[in-house]
Amino acid sequence: MLPSPSFSRTIVSMDTFVTIDIIEPDSAQAAAESVERAFSWFSEIERRCSRFDLDSEVMRLSAQIGSPVVVSELLFQAITFALSVAELSGGAFDPTLGGSLEARGFNRNYQTGETVDSGLRTAAVATYADVVLDPVGSTITLLRPLILDLGAVVKGMAIDLAALELRSFENYSINAGGDIYVAGHGPDSDRWNIGLRNPRQPDQIFETLRVSNVSVCTSGDYERRSGNGFAGHHIVNPKTRRSPPAIASLTVVAPTAMVADALGTAAFVLGPRRGLRFLERQGVEGLIVSPTLVSHETKGFSRYRQ
Ligand code: ADP
Ligand code: MG
User: Fold this and answer.
1) Which of 170, 221, 237, 265 is least surrounded, with the fewest CB atoms within 10 Å of its CB?
2) Structure confidence at residue 118 as a pLDDT band (50, 70, 90)
3) pLDDT tens for residues 186-241?
4) Residues contacting 140, CB < 8 A, separation 6+
5) CB of 236 closer than 6 angstroms to any ligand 1 atom
6) What angle do CA 168, 172, 173 make, to 5 degrees?
7) Is the minimum distance from the CB of 97 to ligand 1 under 6 angstroms?
């Protein structure tokens, strides 16, 4: 029997292109149905967790200070995970930066093109310690006025849930704007070849990794800029409220996309030395490229080049 052609679909979600490829599925129809379900996680998570939609569950939560709010399982898990990365990173990662990001001009809804002004007051001193979880009642209490931002968690979460929908296929990839999960192998290799961009010439490949059954997530200082003249980019150090200057791009390879995505953002804030040590402590591999294109990496990273 001739192998069926590979199956590929792209949508726009979470302000980026999301592409799923399945290599030679037995049934194109089964592939289409699974990919549909995989994509629906992106829309569901975006609908609940977007800071750019005042009606999203996370923005309705951010408008209620001081009393417990019952939230969906999805939002509860996203916030729980974000708080654990905040703890692990000593607060370098902080999901309560929404107010700062909004004030710095990261407030455009890409779907409508409109600038979102939440009108919410936020306390400059608010941190992740002001978010209290109650797993029994599935509630979240915000102790101070703050705006939750789950931008460093949700793309990875969507990729992992999408991958669960594709588990009956052997060889597939999910690519959400450079945050990637790959299973099995690609079209012409025994693994997948993942090109990492040159952060100073993003249309050029800096180097290529060969990986399988892992997620590869990259954060770059070239990715998103604000519309209001803020000198930095979309990753902000909670302590200085500026963008970390010493890293141009940072790639993490980890078993899941949620872990790779969030640990990468945390390490970006920690900087090259502390960031790499942090990634090693968490048992994942990472590559950091400086603004002058000098790379530093964790001890085991080179295995992904073979
Ligand atoms: P990308 O969205 O390009 O994949 P990242 O995964 O690095 O980039 O996530 C960056 C996003 O994380 C920002 O757009 C913002 O929503 C959020 N963020 C910025 N700084 C921090 C921080 N210190 N801690 C947690 N989240 C952050
Ligand atoms: Mg990311």
Assistant:
1) 170
2) confident
3) 998 899 999 999 999 989 999 999 999 999 999 999 876 666 666 678 999 999 99
4) 61, 68, 69, 71, 75, 76, 79, 131, 132, 133, 134
5) yes
6) 135
7) yes
